[in-house]
Amino acid sequence: MFVSKQTSSTDYSNWMSENITSDKKIVDIAMIGAHDAFSYQIDIFSQVDEKSAESVMTGFVGKFIKGFSIRQSKTQTVNVEEQLKSGVRYFDMRLSYNEDEKEYYTVHNYFSTPLKSVLRMIEKFLSANPGEFIILDIQHVYGVDYNSQEDFIEVYNYFEEEKLTDYAYPNNIKSLSSVSYADVTDDKNQGGIMVFSKFSQTNEYFWGYDAHIRSSWANEDEFDKIIDFLESEKTDIILNMTYRDRLVVMQAVATMEMSTAGIFRSFGNWSLLGRAREFNQYLLNYEGIDLLLDVMPIMMVDYASDKETVDQMMELIIEHNS
Q1: pLDDT below 70 — which residues of the chain?
Q2: Domain with 175 in it
Q3: Of 15, 86, 169, 264, which has the highest C-beta tally within 10 A?
Q4: Calpha distance 95→117 (Å, rounded)
Q5: Is residue 195 in some structural domain?
Q6: Neighbouring residues of 46: CB distance < 8 A, sequence distance ≥ 6
Q7: Which of 179, 185, 89 minimizes the C-alpha distance to 130?
Q8: Could you tell me the sign of the dihedral formed by the alpha carbons of 298, 299, 303, 307, in that order?
Q9: Greatest alpha-carbon span in the chain
């Protein structure tokens, strides 16, 4: 299946400021999330990140199957600026230190984009669009000790240097469940960001991950099994009310099954992006999607900017928040 970088002709840069009421709690706001959001620059020339990649992707075998591996590593087609224009507000970030370039990069098995470049684009967007806010989920920082103050500071400094801390809502004012849209955006007078990480050594600008985010992964390729998993998640969350105090992510992604059948399906669909286009439409057509969003408001997908589905997704998101 052919996939492209073409996005919607509609600019969703200000959808939050135009549709979210000031008193709405952050944990209740429906939004699109981008899975492995910063993998868009991965291509056949990308360097493998040996700290995060599967062993089969390294060495001689890794070179032999690289074309196939790339198609299973690239989940988004456009940069963060274009994703923000497409309405994405939740970003799944994976980082690793590039020894050759002497700086942190975003990764998904392969090095993609310098972290500084990503943060610069986010700061530019927040400066230009008061009333919009972003949730940045630093899902992995490969090769670090999450208990190390030194490792935390090294990553944190990137955010401070690119002035993201000027927009960050601190973790020492209110509990997450009490934070409102008005709190994060100064009642639509500025852009806002909330950063979550797994570092135990932290400060007021980085929120802890485990206590504040629920994000469970189906690890399935078959669409009906992914829906079954999401329905099971929905039930578990309803029964366990403590998760209502967290950001709850609907991981609506298909994962290549590492079996003969799964690999052949992957070849047939050309790439993870091709599979994502099919699943995103399948999800939008699912009769229970509104109820899933009630419980898991952050709908995290691959190929989040796809012109074939992004308008349908944003119509659903905006209506759900009304």
Answers
A1: 1-4, 6, 256-270
A2: 20-321
A3: 86
A4: 13
A5: yes
A6: 70, 110, 111, 112
A7: 185
A8: negative
A9: 56
Say which CATH number the domain at 64 has.
3.20.20.190
Q: For residue 219, is it left (φ>0), alpha (ψ between -120 and 50) or beta?
A: left
Tell me, letter by letter, the H, E, C secondary structure of the chain: CCCCCCCCCCCCCCHHHHHCCCCCEHHHCCEEEECCCCCCCCCCCCCECCCCCCHHHCHHHHHHCHHHHHHCCCCCCCCHHHHHHCCEEEEEEEEEEECCCCEEEEEECEEEEEHHHHHHHHHHHHHHCCCCEEEEEEEEEECCCCCCHHHHHHHHHHHHHCCHHHCECCCCCCCHHHCEHHHHHCCCCCCEEEEEECCCCCCCCEEECCCCEEEECCCCCCHHHHHHHHHHHHHHHHHCHHHHHCEEEEECCCCCCCCHHHHHHHHHCCCHHHHHHHHHHHHHHCCCHHHHHHHCCEEEECCCCCCCCHHHHHHHHHHHHC
Domain assignment present for residue 14? The answer is no
Cβ–Cβ < 8 Å for 237, 203: no
pLDDT, tens digit, for every residue of 29-51? 999 999 999 999 888 888 888 99
Place of tokens 């959808």: 15
Start-to-end CA distance of the chain, whole Å, equals 35
- Asked, for residue 141, whether it belongs to a domain, the answer is yes
Q: Tokens 């509990």 correspond to what residue? A: 175
* Exposure string over 194-219, b if 16+ CB within 10 A, otherwise e: bbbbbbeebeebbbebeebbbbbebe
Q: What residues have CB less than 8 Å from 173, skipping those under 6 apart? A: 179, 183
- Res 303: pLDDT: 92
The answer to whether the pTM exceeds 0.90 is yes
Q: How many domains does the chain have?
A: 1
| pLDDT tens digits, one per residue of 243-263 | 778 999 999 998 865 444 544
User: How wide is the angle at C-alpha 105 spanned by C-alphas 155 and 298, nearest 5°?
Assistant: 80
Distance between CA atoms of residues 48 and 71, nearest Å? 13
Kindly state whether residue 6 falls inside one of the protein's structural domains. no
